[in-house]
DNA sequence: AGTCTGCTTTGACCGCTGTCAAGTATTTAT
DNA sequence: ATAAATACTTGACAGCGGTCAAAGCAGACT
């Protein structure tokens, strides 16, 4: 089964993705996990995974539900099996910054001490697994390769946030949207159709705005602008066809 | 010897901070290190530190010199012993985003794979130690507490970048500058003088602008604005007296 | 099917911050 | 010390993106 079977277009329907059990003896919680091969835990042997799975709780949330809230006691870390999640921070007057969109295989909740420093909400229906913080930190000691993998993933995330800071601080609205479309495309490598690439956007315009430091109206105008230039086409609100990725790439950095 | 002895006001002169050797038998490279107690390596025992110090090279750079450049092969990670460093990324047309200011005890260069994804430059004269990537990753395995400490520091940095994304995407110019002044104050806990707090800013106005996603002119106008409100006073370009930290705090979040 | 509700698009206008330019202060070099 | 270069401040003006308002669209629920 290939990775692309799990790109996020596959769960937009909200239906539950359930793999047929394979022939291994994994604990049910992890054995059938559709994101296992791209998750934190993919470094564990079958034997270690079974042990590891004992500390895991399965959770499902439907779209728009809160998974954890800024300020809550950060008792658990969460790993996404299917679906899309947004991570956000708010100012007291309601201004919101989305700091990341997370998908199958991504985890969150580790970069906090006592309290979550951000809110995580389900964008689509999601399946996630929850792991007590104290226990996963134990696991990092028990299974050093797991700790290394978590560290690696954290470093990759840190690099991505640096790129996003460049975007937020220095790019124009058009550059921001082009960068975003390409980043989403790159991250989930959706199927190519001819020369065009179709990108699924499970999040709303307002989510995109709050991710890029813009308003909904500006996002909408930029989508229209790119359409008029012939670089994209819109199929409903949540699908974008990239007609000319090279042009988008050029626009993304102001060249 | 307290941490505050090493707050960054102490090296603004550019003079070399050198501690009297203590009575231990540390290797010279690390034994006299003025940032040892706040650095990565502070978790190592005297014995382990001695071993660890064998892979370290001391480096000095004077202000404005490049330590490593975006795109260079990322062979080393760097730890700051004294001085201030700026980390930045650039767009092809020269627009720059500073993603962080680093000081004694901070390290950089780990969150990259083959190439550095950012440029690091000395703001003041600096003393840094350089450690080959491959060897420090080895050390993480040999001294697990060192790896955990690096992981912890990386997670703290990641949380800070989330806060900075909120600032870049959603705060006004005034809110950005107030947040910045308070963050610098909080980070280095400089000496209080009466009720006022004096904050040292080794970086230029243009560095501050590129850190906050603004222009030099806007930074300058905001400094003047805060001065006219009576919340700060300027002592030369590189010292700010916070006359009313509470007011700044309120302004930092738009309350 | 039809209505409702929330999401998205579009338009008109405004204001914050950027741009350009000139003048002042500070640092560096001689 | 003096001169030159660099850094900072201030002013006038412009424009990008925000705000406010209204209309179009799509999915949800009877």
Task: Name the strands of the widest sheet of chain A in spatial order.
Answer: 1-8-3-6
As for the number of domains of chain A, it is: 2
* CATH class descriptor of the largest domain in chain A: Mainly Beta
CATH architecture of the largest domain in chain A: Sandwich
Q: Which structural class do the helices and strands of chain A define?
A: alpha+beta
Measured by residues with Cβ under 8 Å of the partner chain's Cβ, the largest interface is:
A-B, 42 and 42 residues
Question: First CA to last CA of chain A: what distance?
Answer: 39 Å
Question: Could you name the ranges of chain A where pLDDT drops below 50 across 5 or more consecutive residues?
Answer: 1-26
Strand content of chain A: 15-25%
The secondary-structure element order of chain A is HHEEEEEEEEHHHEEHHEEH
Total strand count of chain A, please? Answer: 12
Structure report:
The structure is a homodimer of 255-residue chains. Chain A is of the alpha+beta class. Chain A has two domains: 165 residues, Jelly Rolls (Sandwich), CATH 2.60.120; 81 residues, Arc Repressor Mutant, subunit A. The first copy, chain A, is 37% helix and 22% strand. The first copy, chain A, has eight helices and twelve strands. In chain A, the strands form three sheets. A four-stranded antiparallel β-sheet of chain A has the order 1-8-3-6. In chain A, strands 2-7-4-5 form a four-stranded antiparallel β-sheet. The first copy, chain A, has a four-stranded antiparallel β-sheet with strand order 9-10-12-11. In chain A, β4 and β5 form a beta hairpin. The N and C termini of chain A lie far apart (39 Å). The N terminus of chain A is likely disordered. Chain A binds a DNA duplex (30 and 30 nucleotides) through α7.
């Amino acid at each position: 089964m290939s990775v692309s079977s799990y790109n996020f277009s596959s769960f937009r329907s909200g239906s539950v993705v359930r793999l047929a059990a394979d022939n291994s003896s994994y604990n049910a919680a992890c054995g059938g996990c559709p994101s296992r091969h791209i998750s934190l835990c993919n470094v564990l042997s079958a034997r270690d995974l079974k042990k590891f799975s004992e500390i895991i709780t399965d959770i499902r949330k439907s779209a728009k539900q809160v998974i954890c809230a800024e300020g809550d006691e950060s008792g658990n870390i969460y790993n996404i099996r299917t679906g899309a999640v947004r991570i956000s921070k708010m100012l007291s007057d309601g201004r919101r910054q989305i700091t990341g969109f997370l998908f199958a295989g991504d985890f969150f909740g580790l970069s906090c001490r006592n309290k979550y420093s951000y809110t995580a909400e389900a964008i689509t229906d999601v399946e996630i697994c929850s792991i007590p913080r104290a226990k996963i930190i134990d696991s990092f000691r028990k299974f050093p390769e797991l700790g290394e993998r978590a560290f690696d993933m954290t470093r990759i995330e840190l690099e991505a946030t640096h790129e996003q800071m460049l975007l937020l601080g220095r790019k124009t609205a058009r550059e921001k949207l082009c960068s975003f479309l390409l980043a989403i495309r790159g991250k989930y490598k959706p199927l190519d159709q001819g020369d065009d690439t179709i990108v699924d956007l499970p999040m709303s315009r307002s989510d995109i705005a709050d991710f890029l430091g813009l308003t909904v109206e500006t996002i909408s105008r930029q989508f229209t602008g790119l359409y008029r230039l012939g670089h994209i086409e819109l199929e409903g609100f949540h699908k974008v066809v990239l007609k000319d990725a090279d042009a988008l790439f050029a626009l993304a950095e102001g060249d």
